[in-house]
Protein backbone atom coordinates (compact mmCIF):
# COMPACT_ATOMS: atom_id res chain seq x y z
CA UNK A 1 0.00 0.00 0.00
CA UNK A 2 2.64 2.50 1.09
CA UNK A 3 4.82 1.81 -1.93
CA UNK A 4 1.95 2.41 -4.36
CA UNK A 5 0.90 5.55 -2.44
CA UNK A 6 4.45 6.90 -2.49
CA UNK A 7 4.71 6.19 -6.23
CA UNK A 8 1.40 7.94 -6.96
CA UNK A 9 2.35 10.86 -4.68
CA UNK A 10 5.69 11.31 -6.46
CA UNK A 11 3.88 11.44 -9.80
CA UNK A 12 1.55 14.14 -8.43
CA UNK A 13 4.41 16.17 -6.94
CA UNK A 14 6.60 15.97 -10.08
CA UNK A 15 3.64 16.85 -12.35
CA UNK A 16 2.81 19.80 -10.06
CA UNK A 17 6.40 21.10 -10.12
CA UNK A 18 6.67 20.79 -13.91
CA UNK A 19 3.23 22.28 -14.65
CA UNK A 20 3.67 24.96 -11.96
CA UNK A 21 7.04 25.93 -13.48
CA UNK A 22 5.60 26.09 -17.00
CA UNK A 23 2.54 28.12 -15.96
CA UNK A 24 4.38 30.69 -13.84
CA UNK A 25 7.38 30.84 -16.19
CA UNK A 26 5.62 31.09 -19.55
CA UNK A 27 2.16 32.54 -19.03
CA UNK A 28 1.10 36.13 -18.40
CA UNK A 29 -0.22 37.23 -14.98
CA UNK A 30 -3.79 37.06 -16.29
CA UNK A 31 -3.51 33.37 -17.19
CA UNK A 32 -1.68 32.60 -13.95
CA UNK A 33 -4.57 34.30 -12.13
CA UNK A 34 -7.02 32.02 -13.99
CA UNK A 35 -4.84 28.97 -13.32
CA UNK A 36 -5.09 29.73 -9.57
CA UNK A 37 -8.86 29.63 -9.93
CA UNK A 38 -8.51 26.21 -11.61
CA UNK A 39 -6.58 24.95 -8.57
CA UNK A 40 -9.11 26.33 -6.06
CA UNK A 41 -11.99 24.77 -8.01
CA UNK A 42 -9.89 21.60 -8.18
CA UNK A 43 -9.69 21.53 -4.37
CA UNK A 44 -13.50 21.91 -4.14
CA UNK A 45 -13.84 19.10 -6.68
CA UNK A 46 -11.49 16.88 -4.68
CA UNK A 47 -13.81 17.30 -1.70
CA UNK A 48 -16.78 16.30 -3.84
CA UNK A 49 -14.84 13.42 -5.37
CA UNK A 50 -14.39 11.94 -1.91
CA UNK A 51 -18.01 11.97 -0.83
CA UNK A 52 -19.69 11.41 -4.22
CA UNK A 53 -17.03 9.64 -6.30
CA UNK A 54 -15.52 7.39 -3.65
CA UNK A 55 -18.40 6.81 -1.28
CA UNK A 56 -21.22 7.09 -3.83
CA UNK A 57 -23.35 9.58 -1.89
CA UNK A 58 -25.07 12.44 -3.69
CA UNK A 59 -23.93 15.69 -2.03
CA UNK A 60 -25.36 18.85 -3.57
CA UNK A 61 -24.26 21.34 -0.92
CA UNK A 62 -20.49 21.28 -1.32
CA UNK A 63 -20.24 25.02 -1.95
CA UNK A 64 -22.07 25.64 1.34
CA UNK A 65 -19.17 23.94 3.16
CA UNK A 66 -16.81 26.12 1.12
CA UNK A 67 -18.83 29.16 2.21
CA UNK A 68 -18.35 28.23 5.87
CA UNK A 69 -14.58 28.04 5.28
CA UNK A 70 -14.52 31.40 3.48
CA UNK A 71 -16.61 33.24 6.06
CA UNK A 72 -14.48 31.77 8.88
CA UNK A 73 -11.35 33.13 7.18
CA UNK A 74 -13.12 36.51 6.86
CA UNK A 75 -13.97 36.61 10.57
CA UNK A 76 -10.46 35.53 11.60
CA UNK A 77 -9.09 38.29 9.38
CA UNK A 78 -11.09 41.10 10.95
CA UNK A 79 -10.37 39.66 14.41
CA UNK A 80 -6.66 39.78 13.42
CA UNK A 81 -6.27 36.21 14.65
CA UNK A 82 -2.67 34.97 14.83
CA UNK A 83 -1.25 32.50 12.32
CA UNK A 84 -1.96 34.22 9.01
CA UNK A 85 -3.92 32.99 6.00
CA UNK A 86 -2.62 29.38 5.92
CA UNK A 87 -3.73 28.81 9.53
CA UNK A 88 -7.07 30.54 8.96
CA UNK A 89 -7.74 28.39 5.92
CA UNK A 90 -7.17 25.23 7.97
CA UNK A 91 -9.43 26.59 10.72
CA UNK A 92 -12.04 27.38 8.03
CA UNK A 93 -11.83 23.75 6.92
CA UNK A 94 -12.29 22.58 10.52
CA UNK A 95 -15.29 24.89 10.97
CA UNK A 96 -17.02 23.10 8.07
CA UNK A 97 -16.52 19.64 9.63
CA UNK A 98 -19.43 19.71 12.17
CA UNK A 99 -21.72 20.79 9.34
CA UNK A 100 -20.41 17.95 7.18
CA UNK A 101 -21.16 15.45 9.95
CA UNK A 102 -24.63 16.96 10.47
CA UNK A 103 -25.38 16.58 6.74
CA UNK A 104 -23.86 13.10 6.84
CA UNK A 105 -26.34 11.92 9.51
CA UNK A 106 -29.33 11.68 7.13
CA UNK A 107 -27.02 9.81 4.72
CA UNK A 108 -26.96 6.94 7.22
CA UNK A 109 -30.60 6.22 6.33
CA UNK A 110 -31.13 7.92 2.99
CA UNK A 111 -29.72 7.16 -0.44
CA UNK A 112 -30.06 8.36 -4.01
CA UNK A 113 -32.72 10.93 -4.77
CA UNK A 114 -33.76 11.33 -1.11
CA UNK A 115 -30.23 12.24 -0.05
CA UNK A 116 -29.97 14.57 -3.06
CA UNK A 117 -33.10 16.42 -1.90
CA UNK A 118 -31.80 16.75 1.67
CA UNK A 119 -28.41 18.13 0.60
CA UNK A 120 -29.98 20.43 -2.00
CA UNK A 121 -32.41 21.76 0.61
CA UNK A 122 -29.47 22.49 2.85
CA UNK A 123 -27.72 24.36 0.02
CA UNK A 124 -30.90 26.40 -0.58
CA UNK A 125 -31.22 27.22 3.13
CA UNK A 126 -27.54 28.20 3.26
CA UNK A 127 -28.12 30.52 0.27
CA UNK A 128 -30.73 32.39 2.28
CA UNK A 129 -28.52 32.60 5.38
CA UNK A 130 -25.48 33.81 3.44
CA UNK A 131 -27.54 36.42 1.56
CA UNK A 132 -28.21 38.14 4.90
CA UNK A 133 -24.52 38.20 5.89
CA UNK A 134 -22.08 40.42 4.04
CA UNK A 135 -18.57 39.05 3.91
CA UNK A 136 -16.69 40.06 7.09
CA UNK A 137 -14.86 43.36 6.60
CA UNK A 138 -16.53 44.12 3.25
CA UNK A 139 -18.36 47.27 4.41
CA UNK A 140 -15.12 48.63 5.94
CA UNK A 141 -13.17 47.70 2.76
CA UNK A 142 -11.00 45.23 4.67
CA UNK A 143 -9.65 42.55 2.35
CA UNK A 144 -8.26 39.14 3.31
CA UNK A 145 -4.50 39.62 2.96
CA UNK A 146 -2.38 37.05 1.16
CA UNK A 147 0.76 35.76 2.93
CA UNK A 148 3.70 38.08 2.32
CA UNK A 149 5.72 35.40 0.54
CA UNK A 150 2.81 34.59 -1.81
CA UNK A 151 1.41 38.07 -2.40
CA UNK A 152 1.81 38.27 -6.21
CA UNK A 153 -0.46 36.37 -8.64
CA UNK A 154 2.39 33.91 -9.29
CA UNK A 155 2.99 33.62 -5.54
CA UNK A 156 -0.66 32.92 -4.75
CA UNK A 157 -0.73 30.35 -7.58
CA UNK A 158 2.15 28.55 -5.81
CA UNK A 159 0.29 28.87 -2.47
CA UNK A 160 -2.87 27.27 -3.94
CA UNK A 161 -0.77 24.62 -5.71
CA UNK A 162 0.80 23.59 -2.38
CA UNK A 163 -2.68 23.10 -0.88
CA UNK A 164 -3.84 21.16 -3.94
CA UNK A 165 -0.83 18.84 -3.89
CA UNK A 166 -0.91 18.23 -0.11
CA UNK A 167 -4.61 17.32 -0.32
CA UNK A 168 -4.08 15.14 -3.41
CA UNK A 169 -1.21 13.27 -1.72
CA UNK A 170 -3.19 12.86 1.52
CA UNK A 171 -6.13 11.48 -0.48
CA UNK A 172 -3.79 9.06 -2.29
CA UNK A 173 -2.68 7.63 1.06
CA UNK A 174 -6.23 7.63 2.42
CA UNK A 175 -7.53 5.92 -0.72
CA UNK A 176 -5.17 3.00 -0.16
CA UNK A 177 -5.87 2.76 3.58
CA UNK A 178 -8.55 0.53 5.04
CA UNK A 179 -10.74 3.62 5.53
CA UNK A 180 -10.40 4.49 1.82
CA UNK A 181 -11.17 0.93 0.79
CA UNK A 182 -14.20 0.94 3.10
CA UNK A 183 -15.57 4.05 1.29
CA UNK A 184 -15.42 2.22 -2.05
CA UNK A 185 -16.85 -0.93 -0.50
CA UNK A 186 -19.79 1.01 0.98
CA UNK A 187 -20.41 2.65 -2.38
CA UNK A 188 -20.56 -0.73 -4.10
CA UNK A 189 -22.47 -2.75 -1.47
CA UNK A 190 -23.21 -1.72 2.10
CA UNK A 191 -24.00 -5.34 3.01
CA UNK A 192 -20.71 -6.65 1.66
CA UNK A 193 -18.83 -3.87 3.46
CA UNK A 194 -20.55 -4.78 6.74
CA UNK A 195 -19.60 -8.43 6.12
CA UNK A 196 -15.96 -7.33 6.32
CA UNK A 197 -16.54 -5.70 9.69
CA UNK A 198 -16.81 -2.20 8.17
CA UNK A 199 -19.07 0.17 10.10
CA UNK A 200 -21.14 1.72 7.31
CA UNK A 201 -22.07 4.65 9.57
CA UNK A 202 -18.43 5.40 10.33
CA UNK A 203 -17.44 5.17 6.66
CA UNK A 204 -20.20 7.56 5.55
CA UNK A 205 -19.72 10.08 8.35
CA UNK A 206 -15.93 10.14 7.94
CA UNK A 207 -16.34 10.74 4.19
CA UNK A 208 -18.70 13.66 4.81
CA UNK A 209 -16.46 15.10 7.56
CA UNK A 210 -13.22 14.95 5.53
CA UNK A 211 -15.01 16.17 2.42
CA UNK A 212 -16.44 19.17 4.30
CA UNK A 213 -12.95 19.92 5.65
CA UNK A 214 -11.48 20.01 2.13
CA UNK A 215 -14.42 22.06 0.78
CA UNK A 216 -13.91 24.51 3.67
CA UNK A 217 -10.26 24.83 2.63
CA UNK A 218 -11.30 25.67 -0.93
CA UNK A 219 -13.54 28.45 0.42
CA UNK A 220 -10.67 29.84 2.49
CA UNK A 221 -8.35 29.76 -0.53
CA UNK A 222 -10.97 31.67 -2.51
CA UNK A 223 -11.13 34.33 0.22
CA UNK A 224 -7.38 34.92 -0.09
CA UNK A 225 -7.59 34.80 -3.88
CA UNK A 226 -10.27 37.48 -4.28
CA UNK A 227 -9.82 39.40 -1.01
CA UNK A 228 -13.53 39.70 -0.45
CA UNK A 229 -16.51 37.53 -1.46
CA UNK A 230 -20.24 37.57 -2.09
CA UNK A 231 -22.91 34.98 -1.31
CA UNK A 232 -23.28 34.09 -5.02
CA UNK A 233 -19.80 32.53 -4.95
CA UNK A 234 -21.32 29.71 -2.87
CA UNK A 235 -24.84 29.46 -4.28
CA UNK A 236 -26.88 26.32 -4.73
CA UNK A 237 -26.39 26.59 -8.50
CA UNK A 238 -22.62 26.57 -7.98
CA UNK A 239 -22.95 23.36 -5.94
CA UNK A 240 -25.11 21.75 -8.64
CA UNK A 241 -22.77 22.67 -11.44
CA UNK A 242 -19.77 21.45 -9.43
CA UNK A 243 -21.53 18.11 -8.87
CA UNK A 244 -22.19 17.70 -12.61
CA UNK A 245 -18.52 18.40 -13.37
CA UNK A 246 -17.34 16.00 -10.65
CA UNK A 247 -19.51 13.22 -12.10
CA UNK A 248 -18.32 13.95 -15.62
CA UNK A 249 -14.57 14.08 -14.95
CA UNK A 250 -14.26 11.68 -11.98
CA UNK A 251 -13.19 14.15 -9.32
CA UNK A 252 -12.03 11.36 -6.98
CA UNK A 253 -8.91 11.14 -9.14
CA UNK A 254 -6.28 13.90 -8.86
CA UNK A 255 -6.32 14.43 -12.64
CA UNK A 256 -10.14 14.40 -12.71
CA UNK A 257 -10.31 17.25 -10.20
CA UNK A 258 -7.86 19.34 -12.24
CA UNK A 259 -9.63 18.65 -15.54
CA UNK A 260 -12.89 19.62 -13.80
CA UNK A 261 -11.29 22.82 -12.50
CA UNK A 262 -10.08 23.62 -16.01
CA UNK A 263 -13.56 23.13 -17.46
CA UNK A 264 -15.28 25.21 -14.76
CA UNK A 265 -12.85 28.12 -15.13
CA UNK A 266 -12.02 28.03 -18.84
CA UNK A 267 -15.49 27.41 -20.26
CA UNK A 268 -16.93 30.75 -19.12
CA UNK A 269 -13.74 32.41 -20.38
CA UNK A 270 -14.09 30.84 -23.85
CA UNK A 271 -17.83 31.61 -23.97
CA UNK A 272 -17.11 35.22 -23.00
CA UNK A 273 -14.53 35.59 -25.74
CA UNK A 274 -17.00 34.30 -28.33
CA UNK A 275 -19.79 36.44 -26.88
CA UNK A 276 -21.92 33.37 -26.10
CA UNK A 277 -24.37 33.03 -23.17
CA UNK A 278 -22.72 31.64 -20.02
CA UNK A 279 -25.52 29.11 -19.43
CA UNK A 280 -24.21 26.98 -22.29
CA UNK A 281 -21.44 25.82 -19.96
CA UNK A 282 -23.87 24.35 -17.43
CA UNK A 283 -25.85 22.62 -20.19
CA UNK A 284 -22.67 20.97 -21.48
CA UNK A 285 -21.66 19.91 -17.97
CA UNK A 286 -25.09 18.32 -17.46
CA UNK A 287 -24.75 16.48 -20.78
CA UNK A 288 -21.26 15.30 -19.81
CA UNK A 289 -22.53 14.06 -16.44
CA UNK A 290 -25.42 12.23 -18.14
CA UNK A 291 -22.98 10.58 -20.52
CA UNK A 292 -20.71 9.48 -17.62
CA UNK A 293 -23.68 8.12 -15.65
CA UNK A 294 -25.09 6.20 -18.61
CA UNK A 295 -21.75 4.63 -19.61
CA UNK A 296 -20.70 4.15 -15.97
CA UNK A 297 -17.30 5.65 -16.77
CA UNK A 298 -15.95 9.11 -15.97
CA UNK A 299 -13.32 10.89 -18.09
CA UNK A 300 -10.56 9.89 -15.62
CA UNK A 301 -11.69 6.27 -15.67
CA UNK A 302 -11.59 6.19 -19.47
CA UNK A 303 -8.08 7.63 -19.38
CA UNK A 304 -6.98 5.12 -16.71
CA UNK A 305 -8.56 2.19 -18.57
CA UNK A 306 -6.62 3.01 -21.72
CA UNK A 307 -3.43 3.45 -19.71
CA UNK A 308 -4.01 0.09 -17.98
CA UNK A 309 -4.51 -1.62 -21.32
CA UNK A 310 -1.15 -0.29 -22.46
CA UNK A 311 0.56 -1.38 -19.24
CA UNK A 312 -1.00 -4.86 -19.25
CA UNK A 313 0.34 -5.40 -22.74
CA UNK A 314 3.83 -4.57 -21.50
CA UNK A 315 4.00 -6.30 -18.10
CA UNK A 316 4.25 -10.02 -17.61
CA UNK A 317 2.87 -11.79 -14.55
CA UNK A 318 4.57 -10.84 -11.27
CA UNK A 319 5.62 -14.44 -10.52
CA UNK A 320 4.64 -16.66 -7.63
CA UNK A 321 5.47 -16.26 -3.99
CA UNK A 322 6.20 -18.77 -1.28
CA UNK A 323 3.44 -20.55 0.67
CA UNK A 324 5.59 -20.00 3.75
CA UNK A 325 4.64 -16.33 3.61
CA UNK A 326 0.93 -17.11 4.12
CA UNK A 327 -0.67 -15.35 7.13
CA UNK A 328 -0.01 -17.37 10.30
CA UNK A 329 -2.65 -19.72 11.70
CA UNK A 330 -4.82 -18.33 14.51
CA UNK A 331 -5.75 -20.64 17.40
CA UNK A 332 -9.49 -20.45 18.07
CA UNK A 333 -11.41 -22.16 20.88
CA UNK A 334 -11.77 -25.93 20.64
CA UNK A 335 -15.07 -27.79 20.79
CA UNK A 336 -17.92 -26.49 18.69
CA UNK A 337 -17.08 -23.48 16.51
CA UNK A 338 -20.72 -22.70 15.66
CA UNK A 339 -23.87 -24.04 17.31
CA UNK A 340 -27.19 -23.26 15.67
CA UNK A 341 -30.23 -24.35 17.60
CA UNK A 342 -33.81 -24.48 16.23
CA UNK A 343 -33.21 -21.68 13.73
CA UNK A 344 -36.50 -20.60 12.18
CA UNK A 345 -36.87 -17.84 9.57
CA UNK A 346 -40.06 -16.63 7.94
CA UNK A 347 -40.42 -14.26 4.98
CA UNK A 348 -44.08 -13.34 5.39
CA UNK A 349 -45.90 -16.61 4.81
CA UNK A 350 -42.82 -18.43 3.43
CA UNK A 351 -41.14 -20.63 6.01
CA UNK A 352 -37.55 -20.42 4.74
CA UNK A 353 -35.94 -22.26 7.70
CA UNK A 354 -37.87 -24.56 9.99
CA UNK A 355 -36.22 -25.33 13.33
CA UNK A 356 -32.77 -26.05 11.84
CA UNK A 357 -30.06 -27.49 14.13
CA UNK A 358 -26.49 -27.44 12.88
CA UNK A 359 -23.14 -27.66 14.65
CA UNK A 360 -19.75 -27.05 13.07
CA UNK A 361 -17.00 -28.75 15.11
CA UNK A 362 -13.89 -26.56 15.49
CA UNK A 363 -11.22 -27.37 12.91
CA UNK A 364 -13.60 -28.89 10.37
CA UNK A 365 -15.23 -28.14 7.03
CA UNK A 366 -18.97 -28.78 7.08
CA UNK A 367 -21.19 -28.76 4.01
CA UNK A 368 -24.70 -27.36 3.67
CA UNK A 369 -26.52 -28.56 0.58
CA UNK A 370 -30.04 -28.64 -0.77
CA UNK A 371 -32.05 -27.83 -3.88
CA UNK A 372 -32.72 -24.24 -5.00
CA UNK A 373 -34.84 -22.42 -2.47
CA UNK A 374 -34.05 -24.92 0.33
CA UNK A 375 -32.91 -22.12 2.64
CA UNK A 376 -29.10 -22.28 2.43
CA UNK A 377 -28.47 -18.58 1.77
CA UNK A 378 -31.08 -17.68 4.36
CA UNK A 379 -29.08 -19.77 6.86
CA UNK A 380 -25.88 -17.83 6.00
CA UNK A 381 -27.76 -14.51 6.18
CA UNK A 382 -29.11 -15.38 9.64
CA UNK A 383 -25.72 -16.47 11.03
CA UNK A 384 -23.85 -13.49 9.58
CA UNK A 385 -26.43 -11.00 10.88
CA UNK A 386 -28.11 -9.94 7.64
CA UNK A 387 -31.64 -10.83 8.65
CA UNK A 388 -33.90 -8.49 10.57
CA UNK A 389 -35.16 -11.32 12.78
CA UNK A 390 -35.20 -15.06 13.37
CA UNK A 391 -36.20 -17.54 16.05
CA UNK A 392 -33.78 -19.92 17.74
CA UNK A 393 -30.22 -19.30 18.83
CA UNK A 394 -26.83 -18.95 17.15
CA UNK A 395 -23.71 -19.38 19.26
CA UNK A 396 -20.16 -18.71 18.16
CA UNK A 397 -18.48 -21.24 20.47
CA UNK A 398 -20.03 -20.17 23.75
CA UNK A 399 -20.84 -16.58 22.68
CA UNK A 400 -24.43 -15.86 21.61
CA UNK A 401 -24.61 -13.73 18.46
CA UNK A 402 -28.15 -12.47 19.02
CA UNK A 403 -28.47 -8.67 19.03
CA UNK A 404 -25.16 -8.15 17.19
CA UNK A 405 -25.23 -6.19 13.91
CA UNK A 406 -23.61 -7.73 10.83
CA UNK A 407 -20.38 -5.71 11.02
CA UNK A 408 -20.00 -6.62 14.71
CA UNK A 409 -20.52 -10.33 13.97
CA UNK A 410 -17.82 -10.02 11.29
CA UNK A 411 -15.50 -8.47 13.85
CA UNK A 412 -16.50 -11.10 16.44
CA UNK A 413 -15.16 -13.73 14.05
CA UNK A 414 -17.90 -14.91 11.67
CA UNK A 415 -17.16 -14.00 8.07
CA UNK A 416 -19.01 -14.79 4.88
CA UNK A 417 -18.74 -14.66 1.10
CA UNK A 418 -21.56 -13.86 -1.34
CA UNK A 419 -23.26 -15.67 -4.20
CA UNK A 420 -23.18 -12.49 -6.27
CA UNK A 421 -20.12 -10.37 -6.89
CA UNK A 422 -20.02 -7.52 -4.37
CA UNK A 423 -16.39 -6.42 -4.66
CA UNK A 424 -15.95 -2.72 -5.46
CA UNK A 425 -14.42 -2.69 -8.98
CA UNK A 426 -12.52 0.53 -8.22
CA UNK A 427 -10.27 -1.32 -5.75
CA UNK A 428 -7.11 -3.19 -6.64
CA UNK A 429 -6.91 -6.90 -5.81
CA UNK A 430 -4.43 -6.15 -2.99
CA UNK A 431 -6.55 -3.23 -1.73
CA UNK A 432 -9.56 -5.53 -1.49
CA UNK A 433 -7.60 -8.16 0.42
CA UNK A 434 -6.50 -5.53 2.93
CA UNK A 435 -10.04 -4.26 3.32
CA UNK A 436 -11.24 -7.80 3.99
CA UNK A 437 -8.37 -8.99 6.16
CA UNK A 438 -6.88 -5.90 7.80
CA UNK A 439 -3.16 -5.40 8.17
CA UNK A 440 -1.37 -7.96 6.06
CA UNK A 441 2.24 -7.57 5.01
CA UNK A 442 3.12 -7.32 1.32
CA UNK A 443 4.47 -10.94 1.17
CA UNK A 444 1.36 -12.20 3.03
CA UNK A 445 -0.92 -10.52 0.49
CA UNK A 446 1.00 -11.99 -2.44
CA UNK A 447 1.16 -15.46 -0.87
CA UNK A 448 -2.56 -15.44 -0.06
CA UNK A 449 -3.45 -14.43 -3.62
CA UNK A 450 -1.15 -17.10 -5.09
CA UNK A 451 -2.62 -19.70 -2.77
CA UNK A 452 -6.06 -19.21 -4.32
CA UNK A 453 -4.88 -18.53 -7.89
CA UNK A 454 -5.84 -14.86 -7.78
CA UNK A 455 -4.02 -12.20 -9.86
CA UNK A 456 -1.24 -10.05 -8.42
CA UNK A 457 -2.11 -7.31 -5.89
CA UNK A 458 -1.74 -4.38 -8.30
CA UNK A 459 -4.40 -5.74 -10.67
CA UNK A 460 -7.54 -3.58 -10.66
CA UNK A 461 -10.63 -5.60 -9.68
CA UNK A 462 -12.41 -4.25 -12.75
CA UNK A 463 -9.98 -6.27 -14.90
CA UNK A 464 -10.70 -9.55 -13.03
CA UNK A 465 -13.30 -12.04 -14.36
CA UNK A 466 -16.37 -13.04 -12.33
CA UNK A 467 -15.09 -16.50 -11.33
CA UNK A 468 -11.78 -15.12 -10.08
CA UNK A 469 -13.61 -12.40 -8.12
CA UNK A 470 -15.32 -15.20 -6.20
CA UNK A 471 -11.92 -16.67 -5.37
CA UNK A 472 -10.79 -13.21 -4.29
CA UNK A 473 -13.85 -13.00 -2.05
CA UNK A 474 -12.81 -16.35 -0.50
CA UNK A 475 -9.18 -15.20 -0.19
CA UNK A 476 -10.37 -12.11 1.74
CA UNK A 477 -12.33 -14.00 4.37
CA UNK A 478 -9.72 -16.76 4.69
CA UNK A 479 -6.90 -14.22 5.14
CA UNK A 480 -8.82 -12.62 8.01
CA UNK A 481 -8.71 -16.04 9.74
CA UNK A 482 -11.99 -15.81 11.72
CA UNK A 483 -13.32 -18.62 13.91
CA UNK A 484 -16.02 -19.43 11.35
CA UNK A 485 -16.08 -18.89 7.58
CA UNK A 486 -19.35 -19.20 5.65
CA UNK A 487 -18.76 -19.81 1.94
CA UNK A 488 -21.79 -19.28 -0.33
CA UNK A 489 -21.27 -21.25 -3.56
CA UNK A 490 -17.61 -20.26 -4.11
CA UNK A 491 -17.18 -22.61 -7.10
CA UNK A 492 -19.77 -20.93 -9.33
CA UNK A 493 -18.05 -19.85 -12.53
CA UNK A 494 -15.06 -22.20 -12.04
CA UNK A 495 -14.05 -24.97 -14.44
CA UNK A 496 -14.03 -28.60 -13.21
CA UNK A 497 -10.26 -28.56 -12.60
CA UNK A 498 -10.45 -25.22 -10.83
CA UNK A 499 -13.28 -26.53 -8.66
CA UNK A 500 -11.26 -29.56 -7.61
CA UNK A 501 -8.28 -27.35 -6.78
CA UNK A 502 -10.55 -25.03 -4.82
CA UNK A 503 -11.95 -28.05 -2.93
CA UNK A 504 -8.41 -29.02 -1.94
CA UNK A 505 -7.72 -25.49 -0.72
CA UNK A 506 -10.96 -25.29 1.29
CA UNK A 507 -10.14 -28.62 2.95
CA UNK A 508 -6.77 -27.16 4.00
CA UNK A 509 -8.26 -24.02 5.63
CA UNK A 510 -8.74 -25.36 9.22
CA UNK A 511 -5.21 -26.75 9.52
CA UNK A 512 -3.49 -23.89 7.74
CA UNK A 513 -5.40 -20.87 9.07
CA UNK A 514 -7.27 -22.16 12.15
CA UNK A 515 -10.78 -21.34 10.86
CA UNK A 516 -13.75 -23.69 10.68
CA UNK A 517 -15.79 -23.61 7.47
CA UNK A 518 -19.40 -24.00 6.41
CA UNK A 519 -19.52 -24.62 2.67
CA UNK A 520 -22.76 -24.07 0.75
CA UNK A 521 -22.40 -25.71 -2.66
CA UNK A 522 -24.25 -27.36 -5.49
CA UNK A 523 -21.11 -29.04 -6.85
CA UNK A 524 -21.04 -32.47 -5.19
CA UNK A 525 -17.44 -33.16 -6.22
CA UNK A 526 -16.40 -30.08 -4.29
CA UNK A 527 -18.50 -31.10 -1.28
CA UNK A 528 -16.99 -34.60 -1.28
CA UNK A 529 -13.45 -33.21 -1.66
CA UNK A 530 -13.71 -30.60 1.07
CA UNK A 531 -16.28 -31.60 3.72
CA UNK A 532 -16.02 -34.00 6.62
CA UNK A 533 -19.75 -33.75 7.34
CA UNK A 534 -22.72 -32.53 5.39
CA UNK A 535 -26.22 -31.32 6.27
CA UNK A 536 -29.02 -31.49 3.70
CA UNK A 537 -31.86 -28.96 3.68
CA UNK A 538 -35.13 -29.34 1.83
CA UNK A 539 -37.94 -26.78 2.11
CA UNK A 540 -36.13 -25.24 5.08
CA UNK A 541 -35.88 -28.50 7.06
CA UNK A 542 -32.89 -30.72 7.79
CA UNK A 543 -33.54 -34.04 6.06
CA UNK A 544 -30.13 -35.66 6.60
CA UNK A 545 -26.80 -35.03 8.28
CA UNK A 546 -23.51 -36.95 8.53
CA UNK A 547 -20.40 -37.89 6.49
CA UNK A 548 -20.81 -37.09 2.75
CA UNK A 549 -20.26 -40.69 1.67
CA UNK A 550 -23.21 -41.82 3.81
CA UNK A 551 -25.53 -38.82 3.44
CA UNK A 552 -25.26 -38.37 -0.33
CA UNK A 553 -26.26 -42.02 -0.77
CA UNK A 554 -29.49 -41.77 1.23
CA UNK A 555 -32.70 -42.17 -0.72
CA UNK A 556 -34.53 -39.03 0.57
CA UNK A 557 -31.44 -36.96 -0.25
CA UNK A 558 -31.19 -38.33 -3.78
CA UNK A 559 -34.89 -37.73 -4.25
CA UNK A 560 -34.94 -34.20 -2.84
CA UNK A 561 -31.59 -32.98 -3.97
CA UNK A 562 -30.67 -34.87 -7.06
CA UNK A 563 -34.27 -35.00 -8.33
CA UNK A 564 -34.23 -38.81 -8.66
CA UNK A 565 -37.51 -40.67 -8.22
CA UNK A 566 -37.71 -42.75 -5.03
CA UNK A 567 -38.02 -46.08 -6.83
CA UNK A 568 -35.02 -45.32 -9.09
CA UNK A 569 -33.00 -44.00 -6.16
CA UNK A 570 -33.75 -47.12 -4.11
N1 LIG B 1 -36.11 -11.71 0.80
C1 LIG B 1 -36.98 -12.72 0.63
N2 LIG B 1 -38.31 -12.50 0.67
C2 LIG B 1 -39.20 -13.50 0.52
N3 LIG B 1 -38.85 -14.79 0.33
C3 LIG B 1 -37.53 -15.06 0.29
C4 LIG B 1 -36.54 -14.05 0.43
N4 LIG B 1 -35.32 -14.63 0.33
C5 LIG B 1 -35.55 -15.94 0.14
N5 LIG B 1 -36.86 -16.19 0.11
C6 LIG B 1 -37.48 -17.51 -0.03
O1 LIG B 1 -36.99 -18.30 1.04
C7 LIG B 1 -36.73 -19.61 0.56
C8 LIG B 1 -35.25 -19.96 0.80
O2 LIG B 1 -34.46 -19.15 -0.09
P1 LIG B 1 -32.88 -19.22 -0.09
O3 LIG B 1 -32.39 -18.17 -1.04
O4 LIG B 1 -32.36 -19.18 1.28
O5 LIG B 1 -32.62 -20.66 -0.74
P2 LIG B 1 -31.26 -21.29 -1.23
O6 LIG B 1 -31.23 -22.69 -0.73
O7 LIG B 1 -30.12 -20.44 -0.87
O8 LIG B 1 -31.47 -21.29 -2.80
P3 LIG B 1 -30.33 -21.20 -3.96
O9 LIG B 1 -29.63 -22.51 -3.99
O10 LIG B 1 -31.15 -20.95 -5.19
O11 LIG B 1 -29.45 -20.06 -3.60
C9 LIG B 1 -37.15 -19.66 -0.91
O12 LIG B 1 -38.48 -20.13 -0.96
C10 LIG B 1 -37.09 -18.22 -1.32
O13 LIG B 1 -38.01 -17.96 -2.35
Describe the structure using short key phrases.
four-stranded antiparallel sheet, Rossmann fold, 2 domains, binds adenosine-5'-triphosphate, disordered C terminus, 23 helices, alpha/beta, about 575 residues
List the helices and strands and how they pair.
Layout: H1 2-26, H2 29-54, H3 62-78, H4 84-107, H5 112-131, H6 153-175, H7 178-188, H8 190-195, H9 200-226, H10 236-249, H11 254-273, H12 279-295, H13 299-314, E1 336-347, E2 350-361, E3 365-369, H14 376-384, E4 391-396, E5 399-400, H15 406-412, E6 414-416, H16 429-437, H17 442-451, H18 466-479, E7 484-488, H19 496-513, E8 516-520, H20 524-530, E9 533-538, E10 541-546, H21 548-551, H22 555-561, H23 566-569
Parallel strand pairs: 3-8, 3-9, 6-7, 7-8
Antiparallel strand pairs: 1-2, 1-4, 4-5, 9-10
Helix pairs in contact: 1-6, 2-6, 2-9, 2-10, 2-11, 3-4, 3-5, 3-9, 4-9, 7-9, 7-16, 10-11, 10-12, 16-18, 19-20
The structure holds adenosine-5'-triphosphate.
GO molecular function: ATP binding
Protein name: ATP-binding cassette domain-containing protein
Transmembrane segments: 30-51, 58-79, 85-108, 115-135, 155-175, 205-228, 240-267
Q: In short, what is this structure?
A:
It contains 23 helices and ten strands. With 570 residues, it is of the alpha/beta class.
Describe the protein in words.
It is a multi-pass membrane protein. This is ATP-binding cassette domain-containing protein. InterPro entries: AAA+_ATPase, ABC_AA/LPS_Transport, ABC_transp_permease, ABC_transporter-like_ATP-bd, LivM-like, P-loop_NTPase. The chain has 23 helices and 10 strands. The strands form 2 sheets. A 6-stranded mixed sheet has the order 6-7-8-3-9-10, with helices on both faces. It has a 4-stranded antiparallel sheet with strand order 2-1-4-5, with helices on one face. The chain is elongated, with a radius of gyration of 28 Å. The C terminus is likely disordered. It binds adenosine-5'-triphosphate.
